[in-house]
Write a structure and sequence with these properties.
Blueprint (H helix, E strand, L loop, with lengths): L2 E4 L8 H8 L9 H17 L3 E6 L3 E4 L2 E4 L2 E4 L1 H9 L2 E10 L2 H12 L3 H31 L4 E2 L15 H11 L7 E2 L5 E2 L3 E9 L23 H6 L3
Antiparallel strand pairs: 1-2, 2-6, 3-4, 4-5, 6-10, 7-10, 8-9
Length: 238
Amino acid sequence: MTEWIEAHPEVTVQTAEYQRLLGYPPGYAMDGRARELVAWARGWYAEHGRPWIYARETGSIGTDGATVAIEGVGFHSEALRRRFERAAAESAILAAVSAGPEIEQEAQRLWREEKPDEYYFLEVLGSAVVERLTAMTGERLCAQAEGREMAVLPHYSPGYPGWDIAEQPRLLGLLRGAGRLPGNLEALGSGALRPKKSQLAVFGLTRQTEGVRRLTEVLSCQNCSLPACQYRRMTGKP
């Protein structure tokens, strides 16, 4: 894979994930007003949402001290550097996903109209869509990597522990400079993205699949949502 663009992917947010982000305990059976709001939010987004995915493989990566250089651009993240070195990553895949600006705009309109319940359920659905888009990206990249006898590391993003969110504009510059994002995306000086229901991610790519068991010490496999993950199969994790 050198570049992957999907302008309007079909996104199915799992009920358990949506409920988790809403703050409900596992296995909780929603009814009444909450159930109606979930159905309404899903229906609104199915009609008006404009999600998208963009990913491309980098030309080169390197590590030096606490710095990871991606195509000559330095990122100061000890966590990312350690992950790449221990996994013997030889390249990376940069990705951007977005739930689109429509859901954020509608949520803000609902807030101004003093409809906090509708606002909250739609706002949280936007976060769930971003999580699902990122998981979908990982699933597809894993499937493609296996055909090349390679493995994709779980993603890491600016704002995660050990990676300052202020470096997000630099990462977006790499994505935008060599690619054609299918939707508008802006990184503010603070590092926040606009539309805010968006995410940038870096997936390491390695040929060291035989030594994958030792990589779990630097990978958050217990938090990974990829059901067909190569690492999970080879390490015997549920």
